[in-house]
Amino acid sequence: MILNKGKAIGIMIDMQDKLVPAIAHREQLATSCKLMLEGLKILNVPVIATQQYTKGLGDTLPELKEFTGGKYIEKITFSSWREQSFRMAVRETKASQIMIFGVETHICVEQTVLDMLGAGLEVYLISDCVGSRFDTDKETAIRRMEKAGAIVTTSEAALFELTEQGGTDEFKAISRLVKSREF
User: Are 109 and 80 in contact (CB under 8 A)?
Assistant: First the structure.
């Protein structure tokens, strides 16, 4: 299985300003998510963002919100897939390959991934773009999702996979983007 930008969509789960500060390695996580979003924008891959209980957990981080057009799907269920508006938004894209990233790995990300796998979708977990308060929760959740059938990859690997070949303007833009990584 290899990512194809004509079949793919990015799903950013709950990267909210009152939730992210509690996450381990939050600065690196936010930077990785921004890189992923910038790359998806270059490649014209659609992105759907969710927010869990916005009234209590706030808005999407400002540095990430610009890549979503300020749009998000409000949810109260941990699994985004259990929200009808989310399922409809995903189905409208006609995407069969789902790249998921965000927080918390062991709660909202994991439950969404498991439900989407159960619905027969091809799910790619972007491992450097997920986080939890504790590393053990993140690591255990990644193992569980992989065992359930999710394909674990990284932002850089996914972006180059979507780019497909060198020598194009997209390749040059993605190369510049990943070379700008400082960690």
Answer: no
Structure tokens at 176: 């510049």
| Amino acid letter for position 87 | R
CA distance 6 to 58: 32
For the chain (183 residues), the mean pLDDT of every run of 10, in chain order, is 95 97 96 97 97 94 92 96 97 96 98 98 98 98 98 97 93 93 69
List residues bridging with 157 in a β-sheet.
none
Cα–Cα dist 181/76, whole Å? 34
How far is Cα 120 from Cα 130, in angstroms, rounded to an integer?
22
Sheet bearing 8-13, strands edge to edge: 73-75, 47-52, 8-13, 97-103, 122-131, 151-153
Q: What is the dihedral of CA 26, 14, 177, 121, to 10 degrees?
A: 130
| Residue at token pair 């969509």 | 9
Structure tokens given for 140: 């255990």
Q: Is pTM beyond 0.85 here?
A: yes
Other C-beta atoms closer than 10 Å to the C-beta of 2 total 8
